[in-house]
Specification:
This protein is an alpha+beta fold. The protein has three helices and four strands, in the order H-E-E-H-H-E-E.
Length: about 90
């Protein structure tokens, strides 16, 4: 392997890692939490200030399988799941 090929692979790997970092920091989510008909809260969650992907979701104790499903969501897709007695519905908007 020549040095040029080596450096090209390093550069491509670094660019891919930076793209992944930038992509998570651009994500925006709409989160709706329904505990009952009378208690219904919605949030806009932007990852631009997060230190790591889905930091807010991790802080809410979302299960690992839900975090994996969220990671795969494309814009305009959503999922719903239960956390305790509350139903959480999340849509990725960006």
């Amino acid at each position: 392997m020549t040095m040029n090929v080596f450096w090209e692979k390093i550069q491509n790997s670094l660019l891919h890692s930076l793209d992944d970092l930038m992509e998570f920091q651009e994500r925006v989510w709409i989160v709706n939490i329904r505990e009952s008909q009378m208690k219904n809260e919605s949030f806009v969650v932007s990852e631009d200030s997060f230190r790591e992907p889905m930091e807010w979701m991790v802080d809410q104790d979302y299960p690992d399988d839900v975090l994996e499903d969220l990671e795969l969501l494309k814009p305009s897709q959503s999922i719903c799941f239960k956390v305790g007695n509350a139903e959480h519905c999340i849509m990725r908007v960006k």
